[in-house]
Amino acid sequence: MSKVIVDGFGGDNAPAEVLKGCRMAMDELGASILLVGDEGKLRAAAQETGVSLEGMELLHAPDVLTMEDDPTDIRRAKRESSMAVGLRALAEGKGDAFVSGGNTGALAVGATLYVKRMAGVKRAALATAVPCDGGCYLLLDAGANAECRPEMLAQFGVMGSVYMERVMGIQKPRVGLVNVGAEEHKGGETQRAAYQLLKEAPVHFVGNVEARDIPAGAADVCVCDGFTGNVVLKLTEGLAQSLMGKVKGLFLASPVTKLAALALRGGIRELKTQMDYSEYGGAPLMGIARPVIKAHGSSNAKAFKNAIRQAVTFVESGANGEMERQLAQTAAE
Amino acid sequence: MSKVIVDGFGGDNAPAEVLKGCRMAMDELGASILLVGDEGKLRAAAQETGVSLEGMELLHAPDVLTMEDDPTDIRRAKRESSMAVGLRALAEGKGDAFVSGGNTGALAVGATLYVKRMAGVKRAALATAVPCDGGCYLLLDAGANAECRPEMLAQFGVMGSVYMERVMGIQKPRVGLVNVGAEEHKGGETQRAAYQLLKEAPVHFVGNVEARDIPAGAADVCVCDGFTGNVVLKLTEGLAQSLMGKVKGLFLASPVTKLAALALRGGIRELKTQMDYSEYGGAPLMGIARPVIKAHGSSNAKAFKNAIRQAVTFVESGANGEMERQLAQTAAE
Predict the structure, then answer these.
(1) Could you give the CA distance from residue A162 to residue A317 in angstroms, rounded to a whole number?
(2) Structure pTM?
(3) Chain A environment of B263 (Cβ under 8 Å)
(4) How far is the C-alpha of B14 from the C-alpha of A101, rounded, in Å?
(5) Cα B295 to the chain's mean position, in Å?
(6) Mind listing the pLDDT tens digit for each residue in B225-263?
């Protein structure tokens, strides 16, 4: 089984929940783990939380890169952080994939610097699975590159398609370009050029997708620049929260509606779970030579376990090799 | 009272619902109306729907610009359409404001061509009131300009602020720049430059607003380019629909939950109304020398009446004069 390198000090609940998640992944999934971080602190946290380190490899890293650090700090001031040490361990082949719940920007910079991009890839993109009617869609770039050239968007489409097929098990994923209208000529110059490139790419391109149709599941892969992706992701989150708050308000209106809420309790809980995108595992960084997964910053043990599982599937699916093959094909045309 | 010029053939339900809306505006609000369109067809529609034309002025226009027409057609092929004739009537002072439920792109092109922009305005922007917790916020540009320069965004902030204060009655509106993070350096070059301009502008600038915080009402005026605005507006619409569908699904699960739905019926209806942005009237085109309002394409008589009321308020508030004054002040700094 492939070995997953885990950042012991990434995320709001590190290192306790990371440790627990690693333990769960080993016990429940049979995963091999290389946990990175200050060894003394990791051992102390293990003792405090009662988590056994048996069979878990540790790799010492004296420093921590925080959410407040500038992403480029990973190159200098924080090059001995658990994130940087873990990424170099991945580059050196000490493990097959890397999982971190830490600073997203730093992870993108560090992965590109230490692990490098796959051959031919212009920029790495952050891909996030977002809940929609009937399941979830993959949104990329979800925030790594505010501005994108058309060729970058086309590559995101190819990589996203391979990921959805190989890792998420979606047959012939529908790839859509997020745009302001369905017609081919819509949007700015970037969108118009990306449309033409995606039409020629080896993917099932379904054309432009309007934001109105995204929540209904109009595409399995939604391609856009990182600015737009951030807006889509965060607005989805904010609106779901606001609307659930309003529904809750309805229930609290009177004794009768409170009774009604009781009847609906199970369904509401399920609905909340459906809408919580942290349930869908971590966000893969697409285009890096080896699998790198960004776990949600607020991940608990179960979320870390899920991200580790996702990393294993990513490695064993051979998705990266297939992406390289298809990207080479795209470039050659 | 000011006179409103109305496009008799704009929108999915024209001319019947337009006619009824004009009648309601005259009878209930005491508005003066100049209705534009094929006179024979308007008279026939009035007879068929039983709407009295008494006191309503008609202005003949032989042609109709449809949703399928290219926006630039308003300059040539469709220059005798009700929209084009109405806009020229506004430019000539035959009325004080123009309302149309027709093709948005054509309205923006036509208003700029025939009515002209206010002094110093770089581009006209479409502004839409979008429901949020505790009321609504003004989103601009909601789709007129896919790409925007920083100075355009700063002007949108000034115009949106004046509109919210003068027309919507919001004291000291909070102006936010839609961005991918709260910090001043976030986003692309355009956002960083716009941030600096908005800081100096005569508005209550609250800095960057992340998409996650928009539905909670983080700002009264949300400034962005038309691509982002379209995504925010349409995603809000699509998500509300998807989530309401899921809530409905909960209610249909069993006889008990169906009973619960009965108890909540009134509240749900109110919630739907709250989330329906067509309830908040039409979308003003900001930066045009005289008030132009885009009514929602699916407007019924009541929505047209509301758009006419909004046009009257826009005229009588003196908002355009105040915008010109503040924009001149911005430019002079």
Answers:
(1) 10
(2) 0.92
(3) 256-257, 259-260
(4) 55
(5) 7
(6) 999 999 999 999 999 889 888 888 877 777 877 877 777
